[in-house]
Design brief:
With 120 residues, this protein is an alpha+beta fold. The chain contains 4 helices and 4 strands; from the N terminus they run H-E-E-E-H-H-E-H. It has a 4-stranded mixed β-sheet.
Length: 120
């Protein structure tokens, strides 16, 4: 029987294999209990083009007393990653949720990134 983490990693491998065949730039998401991290990775997977997280000093200051483990914080990271991606010339990405359910913080990050102008 697979553990919860092994199940998630198995799902993430399937998604990454599908995205790799497309050769698309991907927006990856990782969430922990305290923080959420997003990065834009090149099509061949060798280079991180942009990254944002709730662990960054500017984001923590903007959130104030609020912690990084909620949907509002995830939305702030989504907006920030979209701005950084556009700054390096990336408009279209494939969304890689790393095996996490498209729900809650992951969904909030994705919707905020779409509203800020990223297409996926």
């Amino acid at each position: 029987m697979l553990t919860k983490k092994e199940q998630r990693l198995r799902r993430s491998r399937q998604t990454r294999a599908r995205i790799a065949t497309q050769g698309a730039v991907r927006l990856t998401v990782f969430r922990s209990n305290l923080h959420i991290y997003a990065s834009v990775v090149s099509g061949d997977g060798t280079q991180v083009l942009a990254s944002a997280s709730t662990a960054e000093k500017e984001v923590r200051e903007a959130l104030g007393k609020d912690k990084g483990g909620n949907a509002a914080a995830a939305a702030a990271v989504g907006k920030r990653i979209a701005e950084k991606a556009k700054a390096v010339g990336v408009e279209r990405v494939a969304f890689d949720r790393s095996g996490f359910a498209y729900h809650g913080r992951v969904k909030a990050l994705a919707e905020a990134a779409r509203e800020a102008g990223l297409q996926f």
